[in-house]
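Recap from last week: sequence in, structure out.
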Amino acid sequence: MVKSTNSVDEGKAVAVLSYLLIGIIWFFADDKMRKNSFAKFHVQQALVLLIFSIAIAVLNAILGVIIGVISLVTLGLGSVLVIIPTLIALIPLVFWIFGVVYSLQGAEKELPIIGKFGKKFKL
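Predicted structure tokens:
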């Protein structure tokens, strides 16, 4: 959904920067931005992405330990499995790119798969 030009123009900086965490802080510090629905939407999406990224980091830490043990047991042959956490770590980056592009376009489009959870944040 594309919002009115005035609302988008006023909130675009916060929307884009929310994916870099700076915009989230700006959103909560500036009352004018809190009233901007475009900025609010992208801050919600960025918060979901932040939580998702932390969950992926925890998952990758656990996988790293498991793959380390497998590598020890298989005398290094299991080290090929290191590619799995690497690929998983790229998922938040892909979502981040989607969020930045959507905010630059002035669109209120949810992030793929995880974006629907943004509505649960009451800001």
